[in-house]
Amino acid sequence: MDKKFGFYICSGCGIGDALDIKGLIEEVPEEEGYSNCKTHPFLCSQSGVDLIKKDVADGVNTIVIGACSRRVNWDVFKFDNCIVQRVNLREGVVWSHKDLITDEEIPEDEPNNLQMMAEDYLRMGMVNAEKIKLPEPYQLEEGTNKKIMVIGGGITGISAALDAAAVGYDVTIVEKEDALGGWAAKVRKQLPMAYPYEELQNPIIGSLIAKVEENSKITVKTGTVVARIAGQPGDFTVTLKKPGEKIPFDVPYPLPDEMKVDENGKELDNDALAVKYKEYNEGRHDILKLDPDGEKFGAVVLAAGWRPYKPAEGEFAHLGFGVEENVVTNAQFEEMAAKGKIVTADGQPAKSVVFVQSPGQGDDSDFPYASSVTSLVSLKQAKYVTEDYEDGKAFVFYQHMRTPGLSENFYKSIQQTPGIFLTKGEVVSVTKGDAGMIVEADNTLLGEKIQVKADLVVLATGMVPATKDDPVVNLAYRQGPAFRDIGLFNGYCDSNFICFPYETQRTGIYAAGGVRRSLTMAESVEDATGAALKAIQCLESTDRGVSVHPRSGDKTFPDFFFQRCTQCKRCTEECPFGALDDDERGTPKPNPTRCRRCGTCMGACPERIIGFADYNIDSIGSQVKCIKVPSEDDFDEPPLRILALVCENDAMPALDIAAMNGLTYNHQLRIIPVRCLGSVNVIWIKDALSQGMDGAILIGCKHGDDYQCHFVKGSELADIRMKKIGDALASLALEPERVTQVQVAIDEYDKLPGIINKFCEEVEDLGPNPFKGF
Hints:
alpha/beta, Rossmann fold, 6 domains, five-stranded parallel β-sheet, 19 helices, iron
């Protein structure tokens, strides 16, 4: 579009008191089209907004606003069909540098650091507005398919299907077993789901199945699994099959003859051929061609559930498992209880049952994949013993008893149940006695070793997600058929465990229930609602041509200049969400509705051919280049200039919060917000240093076991890239210490100014960039 610029500065909130507004306006380059420059005492007020709206009505379509942070009043300064560029003069300049505000006149031969900062940010905002384009939404050619597929017909999948159907969406449930119900159909009783949360209740799964059968918007396919999911949100093509059924393998182009046989010269079957083909092509292409008969769906709810943990041979031999036939897991005990009264392996009444919550051996950890659910299940199963036998006794030995929320009511009711005994302690051995088994426990609340005679011993083993070692979804993606293993979830599928529950690493596929984490049935039903709503949100966002979380509503999508693509594969490999496949020639093949708009591909590309309409290599690079770097020609002791590329998700809000709390940081810093540190291209840092800037700092989300980047791998990828740039700096005789990366959480705003100041001091100790002035 032909741009007509409007430039506005707010003098409210202390901006006008601290800055020379007239001087700022004089810095506006009229030759660039910024002839329409206006100020207002409260630009966010109705009169201020009306001022801008009047100009928009007169043809202004590119607006630069120097006022508060872009995170504030974003809805107030939103104008249809206009580019709006926010320049943060309030939090980013005035509030965060109150130590520079003075009523005294600053001599001309000394730098006015506050005014220079504001001028730099205004220039950066103006050049960015010049470089970016108004985004246009991406629309699927054949429109958005709004059918939802639910994988798994247990209580979670059924609940998700009923919720989605209730608001008008067509749903297909795909269940690998011959009947619906899953584990919920195998229990004797279930944990309480309603107030006062004290008594066990009969399973509700039967009534839910009946509702599904009555619902015309729900199709059920039992004895069926997903062979393949291809495509993207709004346009998934799904191939279904019967368990164990072989799907014909079709090679898009021939393999070498020597790869079609095994080491003995025998012709490979379809499955083996598929593996060979994938290896031959380095995973570049879909294993199967697009299935013309595949069913179309717009989004997927993954509710494939869980399976009981199966101890390895000898793993819990000290507890008698695999040695004594009357030592069982909680899943085996539940199946026994569902059939009738609890009995031993030889059919005798099991009136004394010991429930073991931890494998012990000096470690207070629970069994693998255990959780609050296994604690509650042990309490539930202990109740079975007293229900079956008036003189029944249940002993629960635990290291940790987890009963979150209102489940505490159930725990208290069990404590008061005659015949049930609970104690903290470590079970050290289970041995065969003359009349049953002897369970020996140490470190109990009684302060001494105790022995209990038991007819049965039950181990509280955990719930393994169905996605552990099994793709389940079988994606025809460049990055493979399963969710990408990022080393955090141990088989659970989740994209961001803090901010965006239900969202997996594959856009349009939302996890609920046991594949996401260990959950009770009540929690699974609630989880199903969340995942169904996420799936619906994805469908409607795709239909409007905008992205889903974290950049919800973003109309941009990556644009590629393929003429310069070298097929290096970095973008396809580093994309956290598998948004890029390959075409037959090995060139990246975008799937825009899979994209979360993080820009990691842009940061990965060495040729710099990837960008977004309003965020690209040129727009950020131009901002870097228009930062004025003072030299000795300007001042006797020129201030340094340090570039900060700051993640918009955690670090930018943290800086705003620091400013709101009156915390200040070094005035030599110049901040450019980025979508994610994963989107940072090293060319920006090289440009900054080559023009004489003295250092660069990247500030983004933490990554690791206890926190996670919004875009899964962005900050970790940036960390890797920054380590590589150190070699390049050394070759230019620049100290690697001039570039660093730090990680902060949004609630560490109070620490961030100190982190910035410390780095700036380190750069000052290194001295000015030797390239300054060249």
